[in-house]
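A quick aside before the break. I want you to see a complete sequence-to-structure record at least once, exactly as it would be stored in a machine-readable document. Don't worry about memorizing anything.
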Amino acid sequence: MHPAHRLRWSAFGFVAMLLAACGTSPSAAPSLAMSLAPLSTNPPVSSASPSLVPLPAASLPPPSATITFGGGVTGVAKGIQVNCESPALSGLIITLFGATNRKGVSTTVTIATGSVAVTLDSGSGATFAARTFTGIGVSAFDATKGGQIDSPLTEVVTSSNPGTVPAVTSIKGNVDCGNEVPGSSTLTLAGSAQPGVTISGPIDPIRVDCNPNAKPASVHAVGVIKVGPTPALIVFQATANGFTAYIVATVTTLQHFYTTTDPKSATISPAGAHVSGSAAESGTTNTLTVSGDLVCGVINP
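That is the input. The structure line, written in tokens, reads:
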């Protein structure tokens, strides 16, 4: 598992988590310094900039989760991040990120229909270590609302160095998505991948997370795109300096990373981002043209 797993939404740790949920090795993720609904055949119409910011439902509380473990870690510290309606190739999932009550140990919990995966990790770079445990005790799961977890856990052998990361034997808790909103997109993509394979269509489903306090302000999205006939995960980031698109490898398609530093290709606003431009993949002739809007979700409001 790549050391970037310790990063959160703003980088590719989230991709590593999704890869685990989809049964794909995250080892294909590129080293960077900086995570299924049917695809529409009709390209959406975009405006000059996003014009509507989604608002949380006033009658619902903020998203929350209560998690306890059995074993070397017993719980998750306050401030757990709840990500509902997270796109994965297997469908929409819920992910939880947070520090545990064991010093220096963080966790990623992935919840889907009939399955839960817990990854504990510590360190970074050469000292990065992680262990993953899975179970099937999930009930009342709805990626838009939440779910209940009560499950024994079994360790899964991965390529990660386990180091001194403790083991967990069980997990119990509940998740309430509250007033979280995943955001939306009218982006359309068209481009080239490996020889004879094209990238096309909207990103659907998608989750959009805006970070106006970053330097520069950024808009991140994770979703599903078609690479040829094959659905693949895509991580998209737009800033005032341009945009990047990372397409995760699948069993039959390669990973691709496109970037442009053209400041005219992306416009950031409080509501999201307007994108219109082309990016290139280094060392290849592959290009990716993107146009449309990303509208911020209400994430952990």
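Two observations worth writing down. Confidence is low (pLDDT under 50) at residues 1-49. The chain is about 5% helix and 45% strand. We'll return to this after the break.
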